[in-house]
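Question (not urgent): is this output format expected?
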Amino acid sequence: MPVTKSPHLLLPDADVSGPLFVGIDLGGTNIKAALVDDHGRMIAFHTEPTNVQNGPDDAAIRMGHSVSLLADCVGLDHSDIAAVGLGTPGPQDLSTGVLLKPGNLPGWDNFPVRDRVAEHCGHTVTYANDATAAAYGEFWVGSGRDDTSLILLTLGTGVGGGIIIDDMTIEGAHSHGAECGHIIVDSSPTARMCPCGQPGHLEAYASATALKAIASERIRNGGTGTLADAVNQGEPLTPILIGNHAEQGDQLAMSLVMETADWLAIGIVTLMHTIDPSAIILGGAMTFGREEHPVGQAFLDRIDTSVRRRTFPTLAKKTALRFATLGGNAGSIGAAGLSRLAWKQQHSHTHA
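Got this back:
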């Protein structure tokens, strides 16, 4: 077993006599695990590198071990944990608990991740798509805690999605529900190619990968300003760099942010007309500092204006649009919350 750092205890005086849940969020870079109480408060958390190159079995061992680490930091045994939840990138088969062909976990194809983690932690594991887990976290204790339904769009390397309706996740008949990044927003002959291999998908226009590609093309084609100068001098082109230059008044940078907002709005309107959620929530790394930064607020305002111009008056008036609040903890808190939901359902049936 590799040596790992001790978990971080956030609430040393927390009451641990009630049911406790562990949520694990598997990413291409890090494994995050959270110890959460019955009210959704994160008591402790643990994070360590995924080390994708070491293979899925190594990661499954460490994910299972994180349950014991978190229990131990509050003086409990792993058997005292009520339930464990796991969120991973897709595509996956949720009915069998198998990772199919995850793009950011090369070499992990067809790995039975749910059952392997269960073997190493000693608990039945509730398994979900990572974006669905994050959506449930926001629904339970985050930005959507007062909503009856929501759609979370996670804006990062790709565009992920999670749909929650009346405390239920929407996963689809084939575990491919809520693939919001693959809504078609451009059917023209010149539509950009999505990393999945199909043209015109939202992810090809509104992800960090897309933003960097489009910005690079604009600069190569003669775009000028402080952003272009910085890139031409060797600075890495990232959404953060684009956001910073937009905040400083660079016209090219701000136009790129606004175009991203407009493409997102097209996808959001389709989702609103299909699902009619109480709220649309935007999370992930590419939110330009959220409302705490002028560019983040301008990004949200542009999406809001564009959405309301395209949708029905009732939806324009009643559907909330806001940023997520749980940040990088949404996935692990949500995975814990989904395990709690399954545990309570089983508990009620047992005592019926």
